[in-house]
Amino acid sequence: MQIQSNICVIGNGAVGKAAALGFAQAGLSVTLLVPPAGGAETAGTASWDVRVYALNHVAYELLTSLKVWQALDASRVAAVDAMDVKGDGAQAGNLVFDAYGARTGALAWIVEDSNLAGALDAALKFAPNLRKVTGRAVELHTDQQAARVRLDNGDVLEASLVVGADGAQSWVRGQCDIGIDYRSYGQRAIVTNFECDKPHHGTAFQWFTASEGIVALLPLPGNRVSLVWSAPELLAQTLLGESLTQMAERLTALSGERLGQLRPVQPEVVKAFPLTLMRPHSIVAPRVALVGDAAHVVHPLAGHGMNLGFADVEALIQAVAEREAHRDCGDERVLGRYARARKEDIFLMQLATDGLERLFSTDFEPVRIARNLGLNLVNKLPVIKRALISHAMGKRT
After folding, report:
1. Bridge-based pairing state of the strands 271-280 and 262-264
2. What is the pLDDT of residues 375-394, one digit of tens each?
3. Which of 100, 278, 371, 388 supports an S-S bond with 297, CB 3.0-4.6 Å?
4. What pLDDT score was predicted for residue 41?
5. Spatial distance between the Cα atoms of 156 and 1, rounded to a whole number of angstroms
6. Which residues does 126 contact at the CB level (< 8 Å), separation at least 6?
7. Which of 191, 188, 215 minimizes the C-alpha distance to 273?
8. pLDDT beyond 90 at 317
9. Averaged pLDDT score across all residues of the chain
10. Cβ-count burial 113-130 (b if 16+ within 10 Å, e if not)
């Protein structure tokens, strides 16, 4: 069987679903290819999903325009009203941002993966001109007329444009022979949730330490926080071998009683993800555009991986929507405009996250002193602070 559409999106994550939804709502015919169901998924058994995203204003505006934000369970979304960043050592630097100073209602919003996926799935059911196909792609061929994706059952998906939204190990990227620059950080992101005795007041806390990595506690509704601990490999193994109660004691000590005693959210769930930097040599190929982790993988210290993906979707939809009448969706000029539109934003985020990770991973005392002085200095310079927070929110100063 051959299925034809304007756009074929490969990938079943939030970025792929948002891309399929956006193109369909823009009046284009869309095929969304999702992989066959794998093993049992346990995320839905937890009271609070341990995988969360700090969505910025770009993500908020895109999801609102797609009518997805309104479908989220608002009782499970926490606004980030302030960010408290601390350095390490006896003279630890401190940098604080708040929504009031940034002249905005919230700096970001913490949303569970399951809440976001559920809202996107609900919206996809009502999307016009969209067909969801379950299968596994085995071949991708392109020519001047179209791109064709052959599935393992022999079916062929034909489209003017294939959108690769299939993650860091992207099959689409591999089919296009796009090379990558890759570096392992030698760290794992450990994620889980805790109850806290004291209210967090919508504050996201982050500690940069040389020996124990980067620790972030993000606000959840109620007196709960979500942990993202970017821990060096040996420490990660130790933490994963301990009970969550022991981890809670470590975090209670680290936070200096700011949140009071921490306790694991029940039922106890913890996950760990290896951390890498991945730079594809291009985010486009003939009749192919990459979005999300297929196009870039960054360190989670700034929480912007998902935001970069949603910004990709916004830019790609805009480039296609603004194409000249004689160009189809996968025209080389159209994809070139998308690549240029995303180049600076992706480069700056990769530079910032990689640079900060390198800066705070050394124990060299002069560097430790300099970085703590730097945090304190930036905290006293309102112009620089406003520029930093505007960039984090996805706004332009």
Report:
1. unpaired
2. 777 666 666 666 666 766 66
3. 278
4. 47
5. 6
6. none
7. 188
8. yes
9. 91
10. bbbbbbbbeebbeebebb
Burial class (CB in 10 A: 0-12, 13-18, 19+), 294: buried
Percent of the chain with pLDDT over 90: 75
Which domains occur in the chain, in start order?
Answer: 2-49+115-181+277-356 (3.50.50.60), 53-111+184-275+363-393 (3.30.9.10)
**From CA 345, how far away is CA 395, in angstroms rounded?**
11
Maximum alpha-carbon separation in the chain: 67
Q: Are strands 30-34 and 130-134 parallel, antiparallel or unpaired?
A: parallel
Which residue is associated with the tokens 């604080």? 96
Residue 328: what pLDDT?
A: 97
Instruction: Residue 213: name the closest of 371, 353, 88 by CA.
Output: 88
Query: Strand pairing partners for 232?
Result: 187
**What local confidence, expressed as pLDDT, does residue 397 receive?**
43
Backbone CA torsion sign across 283, 285, 291, 296 = negative
DSSP state of 274: E
What's the distance, CA 226 to chain centroid? 15
Q: How many CA atoms lie within 13 A of 273 on its CB side?
A: 16
Q: How many CA atoms within 13 Å lie on the side-chain side of 278?
A: 21
Whether the model pTM is above 0.85? yes
- Across 222-237, b (16+ Cβ under 10 Å) vs e yields ebbbbbbbbbbeebbe
Q: Is the dihedral of CA 365, 367, 372, 377 positive or negative?
A: positive
Helix or strand holding residue 366 (H, E): helix 365-379
Question: For the segment 234-283, what is each residue's pLDDT rounded down to a tens digit?
Answer: 999 999 999 999 999 999 999 887 899 999 999 999 999 999 999 999 99
Token digits for 108? Answer: 């970001």
Whole-number pLDDT of residue 43: 44
Distance of CA 57 to the CA centre of its chain: 13
Report the C-alpha gap between 212 and 209 in whole angstroms.
6
Q: Is the per-residue pLDDT at 142 higher than 80?
A: yes
Are the beta carbons of 102 and 389 closer than 8 angstroms? yes
Does an H or E element contain 291, and which?
Answer: none
Please give the structure tokens belonging to residue 316. Answer: 């790609």
Residues 150-170 as b/e (b if ≥16 CB within 10 A, e otherwise) read: bbeeeeebbbbbbbbbbbbeb
